[in-house]
Structures are given as structure tokens and as C-alpha cells.
Amino acid sequence: xxxxxxxxxxxxxxxxxxxxxxxxxxxxxxxxxxxxxxxxxxxxxxxxxxxxxxxxxxxxxxxxxxxxxxxxxxxxxxxxxxxxxxxxxxxxxxxxxxxxxxxxxxxxxxxxxxxxxxxxxxxxxxxxxxxxxxxxxxxxxxxxxxxxxxxxxxxxxxxxxxxxxxxxxxxxxxxxxxxxxxxxxxxxxxxxxxxxxxxxxxxxxxxxxxxxxxxxxxxxxxxxxxxxxxxxxxxxxxxxxxxxxxxxxxxxxxxxxxxxxxxxxxxxxxxxxxxxxxxxxxxxxxxxxxxxxxxxxxxxxxxxxxxxxxxxxxxxxxxxxxxxxxxxxxxxxxxxxxxxxxxxxxxxxxxxxxxxxxxxxxxxxxxxxxxxxxxxxxxxxxxxxxxxxxxxxxxxxxxxxxxxxxxxxxxxxxxxxxxx
Length: 420
Known about the structure:
Elements: H1 33-37, E1 54-56, E2 64-73, E3 76-77, E4 94-95, H2 97-109, E5 113-126, E6 139-149, E7 198-216, E8 225-245, E9 253-265, E10 272-273, E11 279-280, E12 291-304, E13 307-316, H3 331-336, E14 349-357, E15 365-371, E16 380-385, H4 387-390, E17 394-401, E18 404-418
Parallel strand pairs: 2-6
Antiparallel strand pairs: 1-5, 2-3, 2-4, 5-6, 7-8, 7-18, 8-9, 9-12, 10-11, 12-13, 13-14, 14-15, 15-16, 16-17, 17-18
């Protein structure tokens, strides 16, 4: 969803570049019980000035083609990204009176606002030709929500007013990238929850710290429970994608992409002991595990309420990396522990799913699951990304394989390089 927030700093959204003045419509009296409880009427526009465009009556029922969505608090535009989660309007989508009323109900349900007044303004951009016979207006429209904050303690003040102080500026952090989770991508590019087709590029840095806790049932394993074992795997990746289809109310966003990864270790892979015999090194290569890995993928993503759900498939040798995440998946461990000699953990097709839950726009909770098809011991990796709540970009991974599982500590940083 692309929202034009240039007006958030006092700039008019019109093409003239003039500075928008505060909305001149009469404010809702906070001290009036009637105003506090009055039902929302969508037939009266907010204002016809400020370069917003030609005001339109919402009594026409629609549908209209959305051009952009703006939010106004206390007569000023705001770029509080959490508000965008309360509307389903997307650029280029058809919107009706019922859709607008649903958005108003969601905003009222937060308990933050005593009044939510919507208005429509006709823009100068023509609607797409395929929608010209459907929309009741031949140009895109600007949907504006005027929000009146609740003030439960408002009322006539008999005492002398306190000395006026400047209001603290609204602190708004940029939203978290929605282009991927830890290892898996989404069909979105950049920070926008819904956007138009185009190119996207992310730079990722992942560090698998090690096993925090693990259990296994291998007959020859010297310990059935393991704690705090170092893994020390670095993965530096570039993830480029092309979004081919934008998301609408019914269809998902679709993207194709490719990832290139440099994998190396800062410590040798742990050793394995075979039934009390001499230790053998479980290292998988002579260059300390350094590998260049790559994959191509396709992915579909759909917004469902406050979640972004994705499903896709990776093709390439990126799946070989999972062999480095646990000493139980090394070739030597397969021989001594799993009794599967001459086997390797190699996968070239990796189906995956992920979900991004927008607890807030800045601190989502993200979950991903990957199945490494064709690999020995059938490993599956589930990662929980909740950096804000776990601090310092620390995340948890659950690596399940035939015969046991490991809980991994992972540091994952995703930097959205394009679009900014």
C-alpha cells in the first residue's frame, strides 16, 4: 500500500507545491457530551481548501479509485504509520462507502478517537482505463480521515489556565522492512505493506551463534542432551527481486528473485565421537566451511488483517547451508550417529512459508519455516524473529531433524537497500 505522506510535514499533496494550511472546519467540542457520542456521518466533507482537490460527496456510494490516503490530527497531517494498519485502502483499488465506514469503525474501535470524519477529494490523475467504466469519478480520489483525540478530562475550566507549553513533537520511527524475515523473502519490496511492481534489493547479515539447547536419540551419541555449543556460522547475502504483481483485496502480490550468499565459519564445526572411540572431525571442507551459495525463488504474499502471509519455493544450493548449523548434520555425524554412511545433507528445493504479524509498524513479530527436501535426516528449520522483544537483533531458531532437534541462537539484520 503506498501512502503519500509528503503532507505530513505541512506540504500540500497537490502538484502545485503550495504549503497546506490547517483545516478550517469547525472542531468537535471536547466538552460536549453530544459531540463525544454522536454517530459518524460520512456525508460532510472535511474541507474544500488546502490543495486537497475538489471535494466529493460520499453519499454517492462509490466505487472510487483510491489515489492516496491522508490522516489529520489536530488540524495537521500526521505520518503515524500505525494508522495505515487501520485502513484497507490501497493505491489503485476500488473503494465504496461501505469500505470507508469499515475503516472508520476500526479507527473508533482503538479507543483513541472521539470522532473520525472521512472525506473524499478528486485528484488530477485519471483512473486506469480498465476501471473507467466502473468508477463513478474519472479521476483518482484522495481519502482523508480527520481524527479527534479523546480527552476524558475535558470540560469547563474555572481556574486560571496554566502557562502554555509547546507540545512534544510526534516521534515516528520508520517502519520495519517487510521484504523478508530471516532467510526467506516475501513478495513485498522495501517497507511498504503493499506496493507496485518493480525491483527490490536487500542486504542481509546472519550469524548462527550456536546451540542453546538440544536433544537427540542417536544410539552412538555420547550425550542425549546438549547445552550451549558454539556453531559460529556467518552468512552475508544479497537478495534481489522483481515484484510482478501488486496486491489487491483478493489477489496476492507475486515476486521472483535470487539470492547470493557467502557462508564462512569463525570456528571449526564441532567434533563427533563414535561410541567412545577416537574423536573424528566433523568438518565438511578443507577451507573451514567457506562456501558460495545461491538460489532462485518465487513467492506470493497476501495481507490478512494484521498479518502478511507468504508461501514460496527456493531452487539452488542454498539448502546445503543447513548442514553447517548442527554437528549432527555433518557427514561424519551421519556415519557415526545416524548410521547413514556416505550420506550428506544437501537440498536443492526448499518450500517455505512465513508470516509477519504487525504488533506495531516498527516492531513486527515474524515467523518462518523451511523444509529441506531430499536432505538426509529430513531437516526443517523454524525461525522466530522478534528483535524488539528479544533485544539486539537476537532471534531463535528451531532445527528439527530425524533423531533430534536443536534450539539455535541467531543474529539477523536485514537492510533494505532499494527502494529506500
